[in-house]
Amino acid sequence: MKLQLGKVEKYIHEKLKKEKLHFVLLDPDDVDPETAGKIAEMSEKIGADAIMIGGSTGAEGEVLDDVVRAIKESSSLPTILFPGSHGGISRYADAIFFMSLLNSRNPFFITGAQALGAFQVKRYGIEPIPMAYLIIEPGETVGWVGDARPIPRHKPKIAAAYALAGRYLGMRLVYLEAGSGAEKPVPPEMISIVRKVIDVPLIVGGGIRTGEQARAAVKAGADIVVTGTAIEKAGSLEMARKKLEELNRGIKG
Ligand code: 1GP
Predict the structure, then answer these.
(1) How confident is the model at residue 20 (pLDDT cuts 50, 70, 90)?
(2) Which residues, judged by CB distance below 6 Å to any ligand atom, belong to the binding site of ligand 1?
(3) pTM exceeds cut of 0.70
(4) What CATH number has the domain bearing residue 158?
(5) How far apart (Å, rounded) are the C-alpha atoms in residues 134 and 118?
(6) Residue nearest (by alpha carbon) to ligand 1 atom 4
(7) Ramachandran angles phi, psi of 74, nearest 5°
(8) Does 5 map to a domain?
C-alpha cells in the first residue's frame, strides 16, 4: 500500500526540489482579519510559500475563522493551521500541522489535544500533516503553555534524538521551535545535527528577525523557515513588506 500525500504536503515536497521555503505565521490573537489579508497578499507577491495560522493563546473560534477566511480571500497561498491545541482548528484552512509536542511533560500536548481534534479535522476535510514539534530554549509562550522541558541550546544531540524518535514514530516533518519572539533563534549547530539524522523536511522558527538569521538557518540545513513577529510587529504595512522581502531573500538566496 503506497502512502498518498495530500495536496499541501505534495506542494511542499515539489517546491523543496527547487528551493528552500518561507512560511509566514500569522497569529489571529495579534492581527485583525484585514491586516492578515493584506500581509498574506504581500507574502504571495514577494514569493513566500505558505501562510501558517495559529498561536498559543486566544487563536480560536470566530477570531481564528475570520483571519483564515480573510487570508483565503486575498491570496492563493496554502493556509496551514498551526494549533496550540484542538481549539486551533478552523474549517476554512487547507491543511493542519497535526503536531505532537514531543518534549512536553504533559500528555495533553503529546496526544490528548490531538485525540480531541481528530474527528473535527476529518469532518472538515482538512489535510493533516504529521509533525514532530520540539521546543528549544528559551521556548517563550508556547514553551510555558505547552508545559515543555525546553531542549538546552547547547545540547544539539538531545534535539537530534527527539527528531529521530519523531521520525520513527512516523512524523513527516520536524519543527525546531525557539518560541515566537525569542531573543535568539535556534542555534545553527543544532539545526545541522538534526538535519543529518532525519530524511524529512526540517522546519525552523522562533526569533528569526533578519535576512542574515534566516540565511544562517538555511545554511545550517533548515528546509523551511517560519517568520512571524518580525512581520506582524514591523510597525506599518510598508515596513512589513520590506521585512518580508529581506527575510525572503535570506531564505531563497
Ligand atoms: C513561532 O516559530 C514561530 O511559533 C515564529 O516565531 O514569531 O519569532 O518569528 P517568530
Answers:
(1) very high
(2) 25, 177, 180-182, 205-208, 226-230
(3) yes
(4) 3.20.20.390
(5) 21
(6) 180
(7) -110, -5
(8) no
